[in-house]
Amino acid sequence: MTDYAIDPPKPVALPIEGQAAKFPVRRVYCIGRNYAAHAVEMGHDPDKEPPFFFQKNPDNLDPSGDFPYPTQSSDVHHEVEMAVALKSGGTDIAVEDALDHVYGYAVSIDMTRRDLQGEQKKMGRPWEIGKAFERSAPIGPIYSAESTGHPSEGRVELKVNGEVRQEGDLNQMIWKVPEMISYLSKFFELAPGDVILSGTPAGVGPVKKGDEIVAHVEGLADLSVRVT
Which of 15, 62, 69, 113 is paired with 78 by a 20 to 30 Å CA distance? Predict the structure, then answer.
């Protein structure tokens, strides 16, 4: 006998550096335009905007190292980001307590069907069709905060076929990790297994089949991804 009418989906779990155990994923939150230079390149004034978030699906996180070029798009862009994995949560979390809820960090890429996202923006519609598609968030292993500390500065970089496309520093984030967690917790009840993608520096751009991508966040292992 089973309690389910159909077979339940397989849980989403990510590798943890140095451990056999995996990190179970509950939700994925992504902050938009969190580096000033990227906000400018996307046509916005970073000094006038409060933070905003969109979501990807848990199973969009993909540690395989392969990124299948998605259908229905001819303009897919890379966005390197540091992922923040939570071990606990709650509501109305104080900024000064926010880092107590962090399990660890990973390198990730927010792949975006930019042409489809642009169409939705023009019509004032949600972005999911451009952001939350299959395998749209390549991600590396999670490093525990016990091993890395809580990175607040360090180089963020993405190369395509050996050429630097994106570069910045974690200290250039408009909204820092504790502020993101605190702000999100005012609108959602955060919980263990939640993952936050913390924004991307300037230099986002297109990829094509056959490209080799290397994403870097200082203090974490590089993430290598092939566009297939």
Answer: 15
CA-nearest of 110, 165, 156 to 135 is: 110
Q: What is the pLDDT of residues 31-73, one digit of tens each?
A: 998 997 655 555 566 665 789 999 999 999 999 999 999 999 9
The string of pLDDT tens digits covering residues 87-100 is 999 999 999 999 99
Residue 8 lies in a domain: no
Q: How many CB atoms lie within 10 A of CB 53?
A: 16
| CATH for 31 | 3.90.850.10
Indicate the pairing of strand 137-138 with strand 61-62.
parallel
Residue 169 structural domain:
13-227
The closest of 60, 105, 54, 115 to 84, measured between CA atoms, is 105
**Backbone φ and ψ of 62, nearest 5°:** -135, 110
d(CA 29, CA 88): 15
- Return d(Cα 45, Cα 115) in angstroms, integer: 22
